[in-house]
């Protein structure tokens, strides 16, 4: 992120995006692919434990190194964590190659490919009338990777201390039909997660790639501007009125999915309405 701010070119943008994509790929491997592949291959339990331990180490130090605040992480700590991440990555690659050589099916199932580019995202993963925002959370920091037809950028936001409770308040306001609370929470969540990216997007369609607790946010019903007083639910400025919104787990998983077209085209958006309004 620091490199992109100093020199906002495609290389620095792609380098930062690949970190987000790699952490997401590691998560998929930990929870789905790796366990499935290892259960089919005759791999000793001791080797499995080494692999899982290295995956967790890589994910941990990758997130630590994404911090941009010197108060949070000193230069000495960054250097130390960078070395530990490098060593863990080398050991992971070495062990993974050894297992893959013995098990061709395992190799095909568990490979990680994060060689993604802005041009590929635009040309192969998005339509001409579509932009994308990929989120990456690291502690109290939120990074939004924006890819639009005419621009790309990384937007950094410091998450407020009550961010997760605010998401909960938004969801409960819908469940309890609390109009005043909904207006407040919806605008608040929008201001944190999407306001910085919104001004960069001019397309009618939007692809959102979430991270962590952001997956609980109902983006469709976020309010992107101040509503008219006493407008009622039906007349509120919902984000879904501005964009046709689709979702994906990551760019690389999207690329590998044979059902990509159906996944982003078949979409149902639901916003709250009240009989009283």
SS strand fraction: 5-15%
Number of β-strand runs: 5
Radius of gyration: 21 Å
The biggest beta sheet is recorded as:
5 strands, mixed
The coarse silhouette is elongated
Mean pLDDT: 82
User: Number of helix segments?
Assistant: 11
Enumerate the strands of the largest sheet in spatial order, edge to edge or round the barrel.
3-2-1-4-5
Q: What class would the helix/strand composition place it in?
A: alpha/beta
What fraction, in percent, of the residue positions are helical?
40-55%
Uncertain segments are 258-265, 273-277
Task: Give, in order, the helices and strands.
Answer: HHHHHHEEEHHHEEHH
Query: In angstroms, what separates the terminal alpha carbons?
Result: 45 Å
Describe the structure.
The chain has eleven helices and five strands. By secondary structure, the chain is α/β, with parallel strands linked by helices. The protein has a five-stranded mixed β-sheet with strand order 3-2-1-4-5.
Entry keywords:
11 helices, five-stranded mixed beta sheet, 277 residues, alpha/beta, 5 strands
In short:
The chain is an alpha/beta fold and about 280 residues long. The chain is about 50% helix and about 15% strand.
Task: Furnish the topology, listing elements before pairings.
Blueprint: H1 2-6, H2 10-40, H3 45-65, H4 75-102, H5 104-110, H6 118-125, E1 130-138, E2 141-148, E3 151-158, H7 163-175, H8 179-193, H9 195-198, E4 205-209, E5 244-248, H10 251-256, H11 260-265
Parallel strand pairs: 1-4, 4-5
Antiparallel strand pairs: 1-2, 2-3
């Amino acid at each position: 992120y620091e490199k992109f701010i100093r020199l906002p070119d495609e290389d620095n943008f792609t380098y930062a995006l690949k970190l987000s994509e790699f952490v997401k790929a590691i998560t998929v491997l930990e929870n789905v692919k790796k366990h499935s592949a290892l259960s089919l291959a005759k791999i000793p339990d001791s080797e499995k434990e080494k692999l899982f331990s290295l995956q967790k180490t890589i994910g941990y130090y990758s997130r630590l190194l994404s911090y941009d605040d010197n108060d949070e992480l000193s230069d000495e700590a960054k250097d130390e964590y960078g070395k530990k991440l490098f060593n863990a990555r080398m050991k992971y690659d070495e062990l993974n190659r050894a297992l893959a050589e013995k098990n061709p099916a395992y190799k095909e199932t568990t490979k990680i490919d994060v060689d993604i580019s802005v041009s590929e995202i635009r040309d192969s993963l998005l339509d001409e009338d579509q932009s994308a925002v990929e989120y990456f959370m690291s502690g109290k920091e939120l990074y939004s990777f924006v890819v639009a037809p005419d621009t790309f950028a990384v937007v950094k936001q410091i998450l407020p201390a009550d961010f997760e409770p605010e998401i909960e308040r938004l969801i409960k306001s819908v469940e309890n039909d609390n109009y005043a609370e909904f207006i407040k929470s919806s605008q608040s969540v929008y201001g944190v997660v999407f306001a910085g990216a919104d001004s960069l997007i001019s397309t009618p369609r939007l692809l959102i790639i979430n991270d962590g607790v952001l997956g609980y946010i109902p983006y469709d019903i976020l309010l992107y501007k101040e509503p008219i007083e006493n407008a009622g639910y039906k007349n509120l400025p919902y984000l879904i009125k501005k964009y046709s919104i689709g979702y994906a787990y990551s760019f690389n998983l999207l690329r590998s999915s044979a059902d990509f077209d159906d996944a982003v085209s078949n979409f149902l958006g639901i916003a709250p309405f009240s009989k009283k309004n």
